[in-house]
């Protein structure tokens, strides 16, 4: 099965947009390996829009020879030689968002070409889609095309949440689907995306994941989507939200210039472990006050994690929030105890019965992993 777990990788758009070339992509692949990103799970190197000439030649998309003089097959071979996977961009419309050829009407031809190049991942956008065409059928067609190309290609549908894709994208063959508009580098953007998706979780699971858009961690108000920037604490909250929600983790910053704080966030072992857990269960909401969200997520090994995200910027007080283990499926009269560990820091928070209180400040969060202890065994 493709996409047994959420995809992890890097995409060129958030930082570089049209300013891409094969040297940048090769350098990024080198960095992913040399700086340990591959070791923690990041494996896809994805070129977004603007890689092609503005017109097809003999019905085929043509990589811009000034940007990619060696061609896409050679670039894919280089990325594969690093033990990584190669991703590329196209669009369900006749023209991409930046004005390049889309795949509308050319789905099987383009998928065959991508397969010949060695593509492992296809991001499929939604700009300039004909009003007379059917969205669901368009994504179904491009889901079928790679499946008949002779190569396994992850199909990453990106229709920005139009017409409730959580209700039909899985059945139309998408391995991931974008459920939101574009993310920007500020707290308002990532918290609004989070709020919009807490009710859109149940369809997440092996084979098809709700993509909340690329990560802005470490952008520091630079690049194409830099609109204000965030503090390192806010970037950590953003990463924790995406990890807990089961979204693909696609880096958008320039990792070649990433500082230590950014690397530490993107490589956080506890958060990645939750995102990549073998069960891949979607989280569920226990409480939504409008000020803070309490959520839980079943993990492998009989464990369960809970998360508290306090994103109410109107109030400045610390929230003292109770988590009852009954709400985690652990009956208080069962005699079971729970060992609690902070997922971000790895700190042992002790053994508790019935529940515990957690203090969470404004624009702060807490994620804990709970392991059931049966002292009778």
Provide the CATH top-level class of the largest domain.
Alpha Beta
Rg estimate, integer Å: 21 Å
Given as residue ranges, the uncertain stretches (5+ residues, pLDDT < 50) are: none
CATH fold category name of the largest domain: TIM Barrel
Question: How many DSSP H or I helices?
Answer: 9
Overall geometric form: globular
Structural class: alpha/beta
Average pLDDT level: 95
Q: How is the biggest beta sheet arranged?
A: 8 strands, parallel
Sheet with most strands: strand arrangement: 7-6-5-4-3-2-1-8
Q: Give me the CATH superfamily of the largest domain.
A: Aldolase class I
Strand residues, percent: 15-25%
Helix content: 10-25%
Q: What is the ordering of alpha helices and beta strands?
A: EHHEHEHEHEEHEHEHHEEEEEEEE
Total number of beta strands: 16
Distance between the termini: 37 Å
Structure description:
The chain is α/β, with parallel strands linked by helices. It has two domains: 268 residues, Aldolase class I (TIM Barrel), CATH 3.20.20; 90 residues, Golgi alpha-mannosidase II (Immunoglobulin-like, Sandwich), CATH 2.60.40. It is 24% helix and 23% strand. The chain is built from nine helices and 16 strands. The strands form three sheets. The chain has an eight-stranded parallel sheet. Helix 6 links the parallel strand 6 and strand 7. Helix 7 runs parallel beside helix 8. 46% of the residues are buried.
């Amino acid at each position: 099965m493709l996409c047994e777990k959420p995809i992890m990788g890097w995409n060129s758009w958030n930082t570089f947009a049209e300013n891409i070339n094969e040297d940048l992509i090769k350098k990024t692949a080198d960095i992913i390996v040399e700086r340990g990103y591959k070791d923690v799970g990041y494996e896809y190197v994805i070129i977004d829009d603007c890689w092609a000439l503005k017109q097809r030649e003999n019905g085929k998309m043509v990589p811009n020879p000034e940007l990619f003089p060696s061609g896409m097959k050679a670039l894919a071979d280089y990325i594969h030689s690093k033990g990584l996977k190669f991703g590329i961009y196209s669009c369900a419309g006749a023209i991409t968002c930046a004005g390049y050829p889309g795949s509308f009407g050319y789905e099987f031809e383009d998928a065959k070409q991508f397969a010949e190049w060695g593509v492992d991942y296809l991001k499929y956008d939604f700009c300039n889609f004909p009003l007379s065409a059917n969205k669901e059928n368009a994504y179904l067609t491009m889901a079928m095309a790679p499946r008949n190309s002779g190569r396994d290609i992850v199909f990453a549908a990106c229709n920005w949440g139009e017409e409730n894709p959580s209700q039909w994208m899985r059945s139309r063959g998408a391995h991931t689907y974008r459920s939101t508009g574009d993310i920007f580098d500020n707290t308002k953007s990532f918290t609004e995306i989070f709020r919009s998706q807490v009710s859109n979780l149940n369809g997440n699971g092996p084979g098809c994941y709700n993509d909340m858009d690329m990560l802005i961690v470490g952008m520091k108000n630079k690049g194409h989507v830099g609109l204000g920037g965030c503090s390192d604490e806010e970037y950590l909250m953003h990463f924790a939200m995406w990890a807990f929600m089961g979204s693909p983790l696609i880096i958008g910053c320039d990792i070649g210039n990433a500082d230590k704080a950014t690397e530490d966030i993107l490589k956080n072992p506890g958060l990645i472990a939750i995102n990549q857990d073998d069960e891949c269960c979607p989280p569920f909401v226990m409480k939504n006050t409008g000020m803070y969200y309490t959520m839980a997520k079943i993990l492998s090994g009989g464990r369960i994690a809970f998360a508290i995200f306090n994103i109410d910027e109107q109030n400045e007080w610390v929230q003292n929030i109770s988590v009852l283990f009954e709400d985690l499926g652990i009956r208080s009269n069962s005699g079971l105890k729970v060992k609690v560990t902070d997922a971000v820091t790895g700190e042992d928070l002790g053994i508790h019965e019935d529940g515990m209180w957690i203090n969470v400040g404004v624009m702060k969060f807490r994620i804990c992993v709970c392991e059931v202890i049966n002292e009778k065994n």
